[in-house]
Design brief:
This protein is mainly β and 126 residues long. 0% of the residues lie in helices and 49% in strands. It has no helices and eleven strands. Strands 2, 4, 5, 6, 9, 10 and 11 form a seven-stranded mixed sheet that branches.
Amino acid sequence: QVQLVESGGGLVQAGGSLRLSCAASGRTSSPYAMAWFRQAPGKEREFVGAIRWGGGDTSLGDSVKGRFTISRDTAKNTMALQMNSLKPEDTAVYYCAARSRYSGYLRRSQSDYDYWGQGTQVTVSS
């Protein structure tokens, strides 16, 4: 079992930056990949980005490319989401997820991830 805990959410003005962190614990083996998803009120959960734990390569959703970056610290078992040039439409609850199984590419569907955090609220004011 893996426990994921997000932190770093809050209120920020449009154009500002915020950095989210996800701490993983509980499982001795490393995940294959970790990801960020977000869900705004009344909308479906949306893929934000993912990172392969071993290689560090990333995949980002189209709506955040060029503004968000994902990184991981394998020694600390943490993943970060650096969010720049934030827009009001980025307002959502952001969730951290982990995938334990191998896959040939970074997955973008919720169903491809085995473990989830509780989420952290990000609010961007206009």
